[in-house]
Amino acid sequence: MADLDPTYIQAPEHRSDANVTPNQPEEIPVIDLSRIEDPKDVQNVISEIGEACKTWGFFQVINHGVPYVARTRVEKTVKTFFDLPVEEKLKVKRDEVNPVGYHDGEHTKNVKDWKEVFDVYFKDHMVIPSSTDPEDQGLRVVHNKWPQFPSDFREACEEYARHAEKLALKLVELISLSLGLPKERFHDDFKEQMSFCRINRYPPCPRPDLALGVGHHKDADVLTILAQDEVGGLQVSRRSDGVWFPIKPVPNAFVINIGNCMEVWTNDKYWSAEHRVVVNSTRERYSIPFFLLPSHDVEVKPLEELVSPENPPRYKGYKWGKFYVTRNKSDFQKLEVENIQIDQLKVVIT
Ligand SMILES: O=C(O)CCC(=O)C(=O)O
Ligand SMILES: [Fe+2]
To answer: Which SUPFAM superfamilies match (predicted)?
Structure first.
């Protein structure tokens, strides 16, 4: 049997064969977004989105308005980049000061992921907190790193990110309506959004039984728009019992998942599901998530409209930017403790 570097080995309860029930008929909803143009159907779509956010925290969308050519262009271009020799890729290596670019040693919950990534900020200059020290209120502007080759890498990524952001904000409006709130309810939260795109490449793995492409985690963002290729491997943990379900690749669909911010804003009505990526021994896999992040100064706490004496706030509020930079510290190194998670901000309700 092939050897595996021990830093990749998951604990037995987190390996790909744990807590999986084969041949489950239950499917994560696939929603046709073109139906919102039909005044007779739009309300049904909003209800279906609300239901999916509650029961799964995941759904897929088709006929979403993102041009097929923009998606296929970025998919092709990033593959050309990842096929370069590693010395070339390391020229645009990410570091702790400017956490964008290429990286091949990411950890999720202190176990190394079987993947390489390239991160691109949504805008070429992004305002983020300057340090993880809560006393330090400073901000800094960070910039993208772009490889010289392939020459259209930057243009393809920027074009794709613009489309993904548009879809993400549209979905936030629909989610807002599904909560009985005005569709503009969250508009102000994205004025200086810290959103970014990540390109994930999962190489074939000699021991898919021991390692994972991404270990189990919840996304910290508002919502994620994910383009996955046809290989498959993404799994979601069902809210009701934690059993893992595959998110089957649907051609030209996007997988949408709710992140921590939306879960906190809705006081747990909507669910930010644990998910993970299983790898395989023969095929590489690509995925491109767009993480919709609020502005650094947004206070994330349960919305006043959604709490009441019967449904008191379940979370202490947190300043988005500080939370985010603190949480991401452990992406670069194995820390002695698990990085901060929103559950640590839960209020104990008696
Ligand atoms: O590759 C995937 O399908 C999901 C990746 C993911 O969950 C992440 O990057 O946060
Ligand atoms: Fe994720």
So the answer is: Clavaminate synthase-like
